[in-house]
Amino acid sequence: MLERAACLITALCTPAFVLIALFSSEILTVWIDAQFAQSAAKILALMAGGMLVNSISFIPLTWLQANNHSKKVALIHLIELPLFCLLLWGGTHGVGQSGCGATLGVLGGTRAGDGAAGAHARCTPDVRGRVGVVRGRG
To answer: What region does 133 belong to: left with phi over 0, alpha with psi -120 to 50, or beta?
Structure first.
């Protein structure tokens, strides 16, 4: 079930985020103006990549919460917070605005791994076989 959901989300989101990344300059030119697009297009492209990874990581984290493992999800987020703050500070001071956009991309990559590992390790046959059914609730 998790694999199918991840494949479906990937198939639906990848084209949209790739188009946003490829045409970030044009999107920002139409939306705001060319001067802003010149400085912000790279940031939008980096953030689109991060949002793609975050959209995929949403599935295992939601599965963990639905199966009474909310504490694990909270711990994952607590571990991510200092990592995010360090990356944001370092990226902003070292690279500037592009560092902020890259932080989302890097953090998105860590989210996909931490949620998937916990969800696949705890997947049981009764949850895999039926969509929307949580063990012990019918």
So the answer is: beta
